[in-house]
Each structure stands twice: as C-alpha cells, then as structure tokens.
Specification:
It contains one helix and seven strands. The protein is α+β, with helices and mostly antiparallel strands and about 180 residues long. It has one domain. Strands 1, 2, 3, 4, 5, 6 and 7 form a seven-stranded antiparallel beta sheet that branches. A hairpin with a 4-residue loop joins β5 and β6. The protein is elongated, with a radius of gyration of 31 Å. The relative contact order is 0.15.
Amino acid sequence: MTSKFTNTNSKAAGFSIIEVIAVTLIISIGLVGMLSLTWQSIKVLGINRGNLIASQLAQEGMELVRNTRDTDWLTGVGGGWDCSSPCYFIVDYNHPELTPAGAGVDSNEAKLNLGANGYYCHESLDANCNVALTSFNRVISITGSSTASSTVKSWVRYKNGDNFFDYIAETILYDWR
C-alpha cells in the first residue's frame, strides 16, 4: 500500500508580519488623530460654555446697574453714584444695591457662587450664598454720575483648566429724565 502524501510548496493566502505591522501602524495613527480631535472638542466645549455664562453674567451686571439707577430716580431714594475715576461695585439679584468692592475682578468679594435659588450671587453680600462654588468673578466698573451719563463696564473672569478668560461688556447710561 502506498501512501499518497504530497509535499507541494503552494503559496497559502495569508498576511505576512510586515503587512500586519503596517496595518496596525496605520490604524494607530488614525485612532491617535481621532482621540486628539475629541480631546480638543471637549476643551473648546468648556471654553464656549464659560464664554456663554460669562456673557450672560456681564449683561446681568449692566442690567442690575441700570435697574438700580432707574429705581433710585423713580423713588427718589438711594444715593446713586458720582465717580470721576472708575468706582468698583458688586451687585446681584439678591442684593440689587451697588456695594463698593475692591479694585479688580480678582478681589475676594467679586467671587460668584451659585445660590440655592439657582442664581449667581456674591457670598460677601449673603452668607447663604454658598451652595456651589463657581469659577466666575464679576465686578462692575462705573465712571461718571448717576445723574448724567455714565460708562458702565461689567467685567467677568472665569477659569477653565489652567487658563483665565475675561469677558467685558460696556455700555453708556444716559440721563433719560
């Protein structure tokens, strides 16, 4: 009985080690690129979120100053302001009167917390305003008089990661009486 074994050197279809390494390298480069893009997108998302909140806080600060001035005029109560050089104030919804503050957005009284009612507030004005700490600071700079035109700047600074970002909104309040 003869056995029928054949020894043929057929070329089997398969991948060589070099082909496997090349494909792995190409896939790895693509994944690193996608991971980097995802990381950058998350970083930009945080900055955009901070800018949106900062712009609204700056607008709120200017509106609170306008409201304080108009209320003082209509009721005849309140001292108003007279600032030949910039005066710095803090103000929030819980305490709409202008409160003198340090000379900058980094002062302790400029820190904003999130209160129990969901509004941003200054802990230096209200001891109950400590529900959640935020990375936002706001100070209002006023130059001029409440009985004439005044330049109002609402300066908001926030921290995202290791970087600080500033948002400054400015308006001129005129005597409309």
